[in-house]
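ok so heres the complex, two chains, lmk if somethin looks off
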Amino acid sequence: MRQVARDKDNARIPRDPAPSRWRYRYQRLMLTPGFRKLLRIGAPLALIAGIAGAWFGQEANRMAVQATWIELRDEFQSRPEFMVSAMDIIGADGDLSGQIRDVLPLNFPVTSFDLELEDMRELVAALNAVESARLRVRPGGILEVAVVQREPVAVWRTAQGLKLIDAGGHFVSPLQARADRPDLPLIAGMGADAALDEALRLYAVAEPLTEKLRGLVRLGDRRWDVVLEGGQKILLPSDNPVRALERVMALDSAQDMLDRDIALVDMRNAARPTIRLNPPAAAAFRRTSGKLQ
Amino acid sequence: MRELYESQRAMRNMRKVAMQRGVIAILDVGTSKIACLILRFDGPERFRENDGVGSMAGQSAFRVIGAATTRSRGVRFGEIDAMAETERAIRTALQAAQKMAQVRVDHVIASFSGARPRSYGLDGAIDVTGAQVEEGDIGRVLAACDVPDYGAGRHVLHAQPVNFALDHRSGLADPRGQIGNKLTCDMHLLTVEEMAVQNLIHAVKRCDLEIAGLASSAYASGISSLVEDEQELGAACIDLGGGATGLSIFMKKHMIYADSVRLGGDHVTGDISMGLQVSMSVAERIKTFYGGLVATGMDDREQIEIGGDTGDWEHDRRQASRAELIGIMRPRVEEILEEVRARLDAAGFEHLPSQQIVLTGGGSQIPGLDALASRILGQQVRLGRPLRVQGLPQAATGASFASAVGLALFAANPQDEWWDFEIPAERYPARSFKRAVKWFKDNW
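and the predicted structre for the whole thing:
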């Protein structure tokens, strides 16, 4: 009979080749593929994360890292390759250039990392006189601002004063006096800017009258009046005003109608063009026609 | 019967899980050594695609990736005697095998040689319900077998259908799809002592492993040591182990009888130890180095240093001639073989058409055993070594690993057992309910 109750002193059999229960379990655990992977990848990661966490836990270390980072970043960004030293404005006249320089207050030299080109482009494009803008940093450290300027095509007289507007009816700039831009047609009245292309066509038709023509007045946002020298007016219909004006121009060239003492030519009813004479002319007309009768 | 079905089916499910995982351990708990093999299943023909030979008896489906042996402790007569010691020995073997395989195993198929196996021949007969024999009929005919009263405290280890007969045609391997009226089946039932099985399961569970199958080591050695035609024509495999000698009789590729003699190589060692007045370990060494069974004139002159470490010069310089050693060993081996003979006679082995006897196991390595065995057991005796399987280390190819290798083959291609077929529907309560409904319909 072998000894069943173990002697405490000889509890361990000296040359027992058997692994203990825990050693056996440990070996099995180490042979488990998932656990091995965890040890191989997870443990180093956890160690690194732990060390990093402990180090960053210190306020001073965080500050130092931040300071170093900022210093390195500034040093890199202020390298001469990235510096912008001048602004070149293309496609703008002197007045607009001044405005652009006002809205883009840059203290050159500045690093290109600090330039928010899209924001700056929007600022420039928001200027009234600018139709579109394109910004880029040209090699050589030059900020190129290429703008397409709005071309004023007409002068619009409103209650607030004279305005220059472009072909789309957009406001370009205010105008001090009509005499500053005598080359541009003058329009007036509410909604005149919206019907600008019609006004320009009418101007083209009224080419022979250029020296007599004072301007076009939009009435009721519906139809045009052509105002001539001396208060003479041509009232055009809302439908097909160009054709009506052409008829007037034909009458004028055939019979010099507008040189006569006429206050108003009313073309609103195409079937019955009407003229109004000035009072002396009307009296003379009445007299002569009475004599005839 | 129900709980038998359930426990064995649970093991089968474990085996399936292990197959899916691809790694399974083989544990042969013997009296003198515990062998552990770790098998990796990679599907058939993985390693020898361009080899024209094809699969070798199906065992090319797996590969041995770990093997370890340790001296067994706490096992007597093939049964666990001291649980804690056996558990440690199992742990040792498993750890070494896992270390070699570099893989963790969770499922183990175990075998043991002792536990007093007893064989029963069962038969059952049913009338086939349909025109052809269906899968369900097989389950029914198996369920119709009369289970003998094998006694309380015993456990069914194997229950294998070995023969089917349809009307007057016998010897059918697979009656499914055949036309007939009366289906008969013969079944071989092997029971062992319940406690031995429980102890083994407990010891394995304590090593954090799941049992995926149990087999008798006599059966396992038969699978690995008998060649195919021996299994077909009829042969007995005698596994001379350390504490028990297992014998299994095969016929038509089925085991039809298994038994175990509670005598083995350890008894030979004990005799040497007593006869020469040496310790068991010295006796074991003398047996393996100088052992034999047939004495010649030369053996009288060959002196063996017996040795000793008592300090007494006369005692420590003792010598014995090899003839003396043979004189001690031979009667014990004769006794074992005669006991085997008696079991074979009881089983009716002489009625088999072929009476091939294959000796395997560690005890079969005694020189001169084949000559002695042919005088006791009959003329057709040969020494058997287990089949070669892929990846098995050279050290584990000897006869003493017959049951471990057989168990590996068993793990790869298990024999159909009773519990692999569906339980017939009559056993379910739903059927009786249906019958009640039918009775109501008929009578109301």
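quick notes: The mean pLDDT of chain B is 86. thats all i got rn
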